[in-house]
Amino acid sequence: DGGITQSPKYLFRKEGQNVTLSCEQNLNHDAMYWYRQDPGQGLRLIYYSQIVNDFQKGDIAEGYSVSREKKESFPLTVTSAQKNPTAFYLCASSTGTTQETQYFGPGTRLLVL
Amino acid sequence: GESVGLHLPTLSVQEGDNSIINCAYSNSASDYFIWYKQESGKGPQFIIDIRSNMDKRQGQRVTVLLNKTVKHLSLQIAATQPGDSAVYFCAEMVGAQKLVFGQGTRLTINP
C-alpha cells in the first residue's frame, strides 16, 4: 500500500516543549515538503527538501526545523520558539521534477496545552 | 494581508447540478496549476492539473479552464454528488517546485 503516512494524528505540546512530527513516504519520491494550515485558510510552506541531506526554508520557517537523513523520511520539529504552533500540519512529496504534482499525507493536528 | 477566521468563500449547489469553482492566481510567470479537494480533517487530494500551454483539460466529471490573460482558473464539476462536498483549493507553481495555495472554496451539496 503506497503512500505518505504522518504520525501522530493528534499531538499535544506543552509550553516550552519541542515536538517532532513524523512523515514517511514509500513512493520513491525525491522531494518532500511541510505545510502549515490554519482554520479557514490555505496551506503555507514551512520547509522543503529536494534531495537527501539538503533542505530549504519556505515562507514560514521560523520556529521550525527539519532533517532529511533518508529519502523516505522528513521529520518536522516544532520548537519552543514557535509561539503559535496550533495548526494542521501537512506533509507532501513529489518526484522532484519540474511541474509535477505534490501528493499529501493525512496530516497531524498540533494543539497546545 | 491574511484573513483571520473561518470566512471561506462558499458555494452551494443542488445535487445533480454542475458546479463551477473559480480561482484568481497572482503570478503571471506561473506555468503549472493544480486543483485539490480537502475533506474535513484530511489532507488535500489531487483532482486535476493543467500546464500553461493548455487552456482546458478534462478528467472524469471534472474540467479545468485556464485563462492566462486575466490570471483565472476554474474547476467545473459535472452532476455534483454528495461526496463532492469539501473545500477546493487551487495552487500555482512558482519556480520549479514551490506551490502557492489559494484560500479555498467550500462546496456544499443540497439534497
Describe the protein in words.
The complex is a heterodimer of chains A (113) and B (111). With 113 residues, chain A is mainly beta. Helix content of chain A is 0%, strand content 50%. Chain A is built from no helices and 11 strands. Chain A has strands at 4-7, 10-13, 19-25, 31-37, 43-51, 54-57, 64-66, 76-78, 87-94, 103-104, 108-112. In chain A, strand 4 (31-37) and strand 5 form a beta hairpin. The model of chain A has no long low-confidence stretch (mean pLDDT 94). Chain B has 111 residues and is an all-beta fold. Helices cover 0% and strands 53% of the residues of chain B. Chain B is built from no helices and 10 strands. Chain B has strands spanning 10-14, 19-24, 32-38, 45-51, 56-58, 62-67, 72-77, 86-94, 98-101, 105-110. In chain B, the strands form 2 sheets. In chain B, strands 1, 3, 4, 8, 9 and 10 form a 6-stranded mixed beta sheet that branches. Chain B has a 4-stranded antiparallel beta sheet with strand order 2-7-6-5, with no helix packed on it. Chain B is globular, with a radius of gyration of 14 Å. Mean pLDDT of chain B is 90; it is low at 1-6. Chains A and B meet through strand 5, strand 9 and strand 10 of A and strand 3, strand 4, strand 8 and strand 9 of B.
